[in-house]
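Tip: read the tokens left to right.
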């Protein structure tokens, strides 16, 4: 039996624009998904997920037939729950040259699903690490990131950047621009996360931005402007100027709003954070619902968010310098 875990992440800057080759700066946070893998003596996959969006479910299916699991929940929920694991196992079989390997898999996560905190990347990365180790192969974190990216591409119909998967495989703050992925220095960041209890459909939101960008010049220019903010943000992060960092996060949120990926609850939480004195606040991830990230060293933003209509949970999130690890 092998257990691996990987952290979730917030985007300080650059989501969506990163899909079009602009840089992005995500950073890993101390909320982890853990995946337990035990090799079977047949080629079946048995997936047990305790804490995902569905209230505990177990599915069993054969890799040969690739049949839809026989469970009493909608297919899209099943797809969300096991699609990434399935793709991760395909990558692990490929990496270890064992196309018929079967596994019992248990997923536990305290990262809200589909909420912009990188839950799917964390599950995918941890699953690849655990499954390959279970078969006696240890991959480098760069290889795991690359395979997790390919798994995400397969599940998200070709629309994914390397940002999430690289960040959660490596840990800490990273900079991703196209295929160029690297770790960057970051000071201790007073990160506060607000969660509206909902989720956005990453594929749909990315497709929406693509359509807007094709139709309107302003949208293409907005994507480029986000890139400019990221380049400034990197410098400011290196200098440790948190007030300026917060200002740039506010600008980034405004531009994401213009691209149509914010929502009433995300905007409410962003404004509640700013009114409470946060240095800056923005949505994180694909948007449409889910989480915001704010910077505030005091408890004021967290307290204000807890009283904000539409906010279901608010918590402090420390930067996690450790990426994927075996437990
Ligand atoms: O919501 P998340 O954590 O899946 O982040 C999506 C980030 C996008 O830039 C919108 C897409 C991507 O793959 O980079």
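Filled-in amino acids:
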């Amino acid at each position: 039996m092998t257990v691996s875990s990987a952290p979730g992440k917030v985007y300080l800057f650059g989501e969506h624009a990163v899909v079009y080759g602009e840089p992005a700066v995500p950073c890993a946070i101390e909320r982890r998904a853990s995946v337990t893998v035990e090799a079977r003596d047949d080629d079946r996959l048995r997936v047990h997920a305790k804490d995902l969006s569905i209230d505990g479910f177990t599915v069993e299916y054969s890799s040969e037939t690739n049949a839809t699991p026989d469970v009493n929940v909608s297919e899209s929920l099943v797809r969300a729950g096991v699609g990434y694991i399935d793709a991760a196992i395909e990558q692990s079989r490929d990496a270890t040259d064992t196309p018929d390997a079967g596994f019992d898999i248990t997923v536990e996560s305290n990262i809200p699903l589909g909420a912009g905190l990188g839950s799917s990347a964390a599950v995918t990365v941890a699953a690849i690490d655990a499954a390959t180790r279970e078969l006696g192969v240890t991959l480098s974190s760069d290889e795991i990131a690359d395979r997790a990216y390919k798994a995400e591409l397969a599940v998200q119909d070709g629309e994914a950047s390397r940002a999430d998967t690289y960040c959660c495989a490596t840990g800490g703050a990273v900079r991703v621009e196209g295929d160029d992925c690297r770790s960057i220095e970051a000071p201790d960041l007073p990160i506060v996360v607000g969660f509206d209890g909902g989720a956005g459909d990453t594929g749909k939101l990315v497709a929406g931005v693509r359509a807007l960008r094709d139709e309107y010049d302003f949208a293409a220019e907005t994507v480029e402007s986000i890139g400019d903010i990221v380049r400034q943000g990197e410098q400011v992060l290196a200098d440790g100027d948190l007030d300026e960092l917060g200002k740039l996060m506010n600008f980034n949120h405004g531009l994401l709003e213009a691209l149509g990926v914010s929502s009433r609850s995300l905007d409410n939480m962003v404004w509640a954070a700013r009114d409470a004195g946060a240095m800056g606040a923005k949505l994180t991830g694909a948007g449409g619902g889910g989480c915001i990230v704010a910077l505030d060293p005091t408890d004021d933003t967290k307290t204000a968010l807890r009283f904000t209509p539409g906010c279901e949970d608010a918590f402090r999130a420390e930067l996690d310098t450790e990426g994927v690890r075996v437990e």
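DSSP finds nine helices and twelve strands in the chain. The radius of gyration is 19 Å.
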